[in-house]
Amino acid sequence: MGWAVITAAVLAATPAFLTQGDVTPEDALVAEAEASWVALEARYVAEAGGFLTQAPAPIRLQRGVGLAADRNAQSKPGLVELRQNTPGVLDERLRLALRHELAHQLLWWVCPAASEDRLFHEAFALVVSGELPIWREGPYQSLSVAASELARSPAVDTSRARRALARILGEDRGFPQALSRRLRQCQDGARWVVPVSIDELADVTVKAAAEATVVLSRHSGEVLLSEGEVQRALPYGSTLKPFVMAGSSEPPPLLTPRSGVQEWACGQGLPKQVDGRTALLRSCNGYFLDWGARGGAAADFGPWGAVLTAVGLTGKPADMADAIGLRSTLALSPWGMAQAYRLLAEARPDLIEWMKDNAARGTLSELPASAAYVGVATKTGTVRDAASRPQYGWIVAVDADVVAVVMRPGKMPRSFAAEVPKVLARVRQRPGLDAAKVQVLGLASTSEVEAGCRGVGFAVDQGTPRPAPQGFSQLKQLVAKGPAVCLGSPWRVRVPGLPSEGRDYAGSFTGSTPPPYRPPPGVPTTERERSARRGSDFIFRTTRLQYTAGVVAAEDAASKGEPRIALARVVAHNEQHAETRHGGRPICDTTHCQAFLGTVRVRPEEEKALALPPLKWNQWLLFSQGGQEPWREVRPRSQVESLLGQGVASLRFDAGRVSYIRAQQESGATFDTTESLPCEVLRSALKLPACPRTASFDGSNLIFEGRGRGHGEGLDVEAAKASGLSSDDILKKAYGQPARSSK
Ligand SMILES: [Zn+2]
Ligand SMILES: [Zn+2]
Fold it and tell me: What is the ipTM of this complex?
């Protein structure tokens, strides 16, 4: 008594329930239906905050003929089909199924705008029928598992999907607020623009997302800027469309726009036939949906699905609408987005090239900020809430050196387009972000070099990412078909003879076989020297700043202040003047060029050095440890003669060369010749610390004496340390005035 009865008195009449004798007893069935209807309508009135005026249409109740095995009932407007296990008995299961189907009938009647929203219908039916506790039985399901289960069956017509939905609704003990909001929308007669989403039902948007900005180096992979909650996964809108293209088995087709279809409203002057490039620049949903429908498009991102999952995509898209973010079922963090784009830029430069037109003729065109995007590839994304307001705006920007992901809540990408060039400029205040390439590990045998990624590693095979094996594997295999990229961590590299934990290399590797090295005639070289001069099969790319710091650490880890800045300037300069060393190939990592033993922490001196103007000399600049420490080394005469020839008598050292007298025999006669070689040839072959000052004979040995370390030319690092000079003056003293540039 009481409330229900009083409410019933002011409600519209119940519908006429028509039966045909195949579910019995009929009068009890009709009475049950009427009681259920009154309760349902009362619930609706309480939640939607309004009464219903017009009378409902009649509803037929009959036995279901083609019911699936796991269903007790089904319905369409005006018809409910029921399963009756025992004729004459209306058991609890039947009454529950009846209430569920009547809930659908009520919604069809009061909210025709929501007729197609299956998730809304099922959520309402589950809540008001009283069956939630039954579905909640069974093993525990996490919210995220339930969400991805549900995302796979948008029609919610399986028991698995209903169990998942019950789990999501179960987070909220009362009548779900999301459903109340939606019922009020019914009562207002509002258009049903956006269907109910899983997030909305789960009420996971309790804490609003704040702004997030993350910038990665394309070369080293390091995070250059991170502001806000960059690790929080959010719906991503259209930002992953390039991955649909990259993952598809066929090239993007030419498609004909369908007029009058909302998803094909892709801007003014759409051509009669739309190609992939235009579809991407206009972010045209209709193109992607139609391509998905006709087959050949990767709604699951194809091989890129593994990449996106590895960087945190919350599930697999069920269809194209999920993939292109029309439904906000899946989420990805700004950090993960940046990682995925770093690999895309490596594997699919063609798509990045397309995206460079976005500010000229795509989603960021005709804005005051558009001009600031020249040369920058971009992709935008907008996530809308239930009322079609922007919930999250995304801009992904890829330039020659960095990937930036900028997410702003409550904004359209066009409204914050001016912020992104500012973010890029801010990051550029750090010097040396451009690429440096080095031939690495050429002294080791190619098949002995192993690399492992503690993040997620991928080997690119003709534009397609293949997951790298877990742990260490042959670098030769990883780079066999394209670049090898480690997302979220540096590569770790090991070779025999190094500590077994290996060394860090923050950057990407590619394979490139160098031509064989032919020593100049008459210059004696060792096997090791030939290897060093040949270069390496592995080319490592990182930032110029990281490369410079690595060389300075390997060449002179202990120096500080101005001498370190001077050395760093020379090292960075040489990386761009390596053409004389390896004939157009990158610099090597041995003392033949300048030593580089992997990634180290950058010191302030290296940042200062790279912030200074580039050096004006336009050739390779020599440097050495130098110093004045005296040394004395003994070498067998036979070793020296194997280099210089039989009969060596006196040796003299001057101006970087060694001159020597040699007794030669010809046609029985003996005569002396004077010959000379670069001192460096002798120094490196005999492994002397520096070019000697003197050599004397002692029986079957030669005694070499000298001071300091290195070849004694160019920058003398020890002398620089003792000088107290600024880096500019150190360099002038070492190399003189730069020759006038030929440019
Ligand atoms: Zn249902
Ligand atoms: Zn070299």
Answer: 0.57
